[in-house]
Amino acid sequence: MSEEATLEGEHREREQNRLAVEALEDNGDDLATPREIDHFIYFDDLDGLTRFEQQVQGLGFRLRHHVETEQGRPGLQVYRIDIPSLERIDEVTLPLYRAALACGGQYDGWESQVVE
Fold first, then answer.
1. What are the sequence ranges of the domains in the chain?
2. Which of 93, 108, 114, 115 is deepest in the core (most CB within 10 A)?
3. Which residues form the Regulator of ribonuclease activity B domain (predicted)?
4. How far is CA 102 from CA 16, 90, 91, in A?
5. How do residues 27-67 score in pLDDT, each as one tens digit?
6. CA atoms of 86 and 18, how far apart (whole Å)
7. CB under 8 Å to 46, separation ≥6 — which residues?
């Protein structure tokens, strides 16, 4: 993937992060409270999934589930305790986004419980 495409993808990821943080905030979330944040990543094959799983363990993420799309693509749901504030969430998601790309995968976003 070209550097331009990667930067464009990271820009989209930052925008999705902003929207997710705003949704939490709109629901009364205390964005400064650490909590488990789940992340979803999908792959074209199990080889990429396995390589990614090894990489993210080194970043402190833990496996919650192996998942599969309706089209049969393998994926992972991983989590780590982090703070979902706008100032910090890009530092959490962009390394996952980059690692997914390097392993032939697609980072598909994150979710968190609302903490008041």
1. 3-112
2. 93
3. 15-111
4. 20, 18, 17
5. 999 999 999 999 999 999 999 999 999 999 999 999 999 99
6. 6
7. 74
